[in-house]
Task: inverse folding
């Protein structure tokens, strides 16, 4: 923990919560301060981080009076920013060392490493959240499309299919996802494989699927490194 690594008497994690920065977790800081403190991006420590994005030392940066006042409220001596998409989204604050000793150069460097690692974690979390939200929106759209939609990766495996595709092809997504496109029938696979091979779209193709005893009209569109997307209906 930070208390053990840096031998601090107090520390705090500050995070952006709907536009204002609050104490998300702390040690050695009065609960009344932790619960009531709100930092703004318009001034003080957060403004300083947006302009400098590096370690803040309450003593060395004494001329940044607004930031120093906020650090004093927190009982902080050093602070490092958390960044996401290049913007400040919080900070890690540590107080004086319990031993009374000064922070060494190596300890200051370690704090900067903590800042970079935490920022990378926030960035990954944001990317995951954005991807998850995008996938949820896509799933809602595909669920309301009356045509079947299937995507096939360059390695010739099925990556995605909507409910209409399951109904038309009479297969379950759980049985074919990650498996060869041949699982969807030889006629279907033939068009997909030729599209993967030459990168040319195939529009309004008709195939007869003996298993379905029906004609299926489909269009296959190459998507570069994403593979091929196929839209079809009976």
Result:
């Amino acid at each position: 923990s930070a208390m053990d690594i840096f031998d601090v008497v107090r520390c705090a994690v500050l995070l952006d919560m709907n536009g204002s920065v609050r104490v998300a977790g702390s040690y050695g800081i009065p609960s009344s301060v932790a619960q009531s403190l709100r930092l703004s991006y318009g001034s003080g420590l957060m403004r300083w981080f947006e302009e400098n994005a590096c370690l803040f030392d309450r003593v060395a940066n004494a001329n940044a009076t607004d930031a120093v006042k906020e650090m004093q409220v927190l009982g902080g001596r050093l602070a490092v920013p958390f960044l996401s998409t290049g913007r400040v989204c919080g900070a890690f604050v540590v107080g004086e060392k319990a031993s009374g000793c000064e922070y060494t150069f190596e300890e200051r460097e370690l704090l900067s490493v903590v800042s970079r690692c935490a920022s990378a974690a926030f960035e990954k979390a944001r990317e995951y959240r954005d991807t998850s939200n995008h996938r949820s929106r896509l799933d809602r759209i595909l669920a309301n499309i009356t045509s079947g939609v299937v995507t096939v990766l360059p390695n010739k495996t099925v990556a995605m299919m909507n409910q209409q595709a399951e109904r038309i092809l009479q297969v379950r997504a759980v049985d074919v996802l990650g498996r060869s496109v041949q699982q969807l029938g030889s006629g279907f696979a033939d068009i997909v494989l030729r599209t993967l091979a030459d990168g040319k779209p195939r529009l309004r193709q008709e195939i007869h699927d003996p298993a379905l005893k029906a004609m299926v009209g489909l269009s296959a569109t190459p998507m570069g490194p994403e593979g091929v997307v196929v839209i079809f209906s009976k």
